[in-house]
Amino acid sequence: MRYWAWFVVKLAVAAAGWRGMLKLVSRVFPPEKDLLAPLGKGVSFLLCDLVLLLCFLLFAGALYLIVWDQRYRCRVCLRRLRMPVARGSWSRILLFGRPQIEYICPYGHGTLREDDLHISGLSAAEWTPNSGDMWAELCAPGKDSDRA
Ligand SMILES: [Zn+2]
Q: Ligand 1: distance of its center to the CA of 81 in Å?
């Protein structure tokens, strides 16, 4: 819930910035009432179109950065995921699995697994939450060896 609320907050802040930028553009280039105005003010209309194109590129870039930033955040504490670890093998896919990159939360809330092999487009990353008990996970391999 907190994860999606943070995403919505970032989108709302970006939307407010975009709205302010569009108001500034409309103030600099007021709408024309005359239908033949483009004939007399061609350079002004061209400049307005260029500014709107730049605004669109800024909007698209900001949206991309917001989604990219959100993808690499912890789902619990919203901190940036760290310590990328390459898993699998390119030359031994059948033996060690497909190449993946794992990111972890510095506070151990979970792991994000992202495929490094994109055969049919971009696949969704897989978030695996860790259990709250760190010691149980650390001692789990030892329990198997105790039984044997
Ligand atoms: Zn976390």
A: 8
Strand-pair partners of 11: none
**Cα gap 8→6, rounded to integer Å:** 5
End-to-end CA distance of the chain: 43
What are the structure tokens assigned to 57, written together? Answer: 């590129």
CA of 138 to the centre of ligand 1 (A): 18
Ligand 1 centroid distance, CA of 73 (Å):
8
Cα 102 to middle of ligand 1, angstroms: 14
Rounded to whole angstroms, the Cα distance separating 119 from 67 reads: 22
Q: Given a cut of 60, is residue 145 above it in pLDDT?
A: no
Q: Which residue has the tokens 């990328």?
A: 84
Instruction: Report the pLDDT value the prediction gives residue 53, as an integer from 0 to 100.
Output: 96
| pTM of the predicted model over 0.70 | yes
| Cα torsion angle, 37, 43, 47, 50, sign | positive
Domain ranges of the chain: 2-71, 82-147
Structure tokens at 63: 């949206």
Residue 141 pLDDT level (bands cut at 50, 70, 90): low
Taking the centre of ligand 1 as the mean of its atom positions, its distance from the CA of residue 78, in whole angstroms, is 6
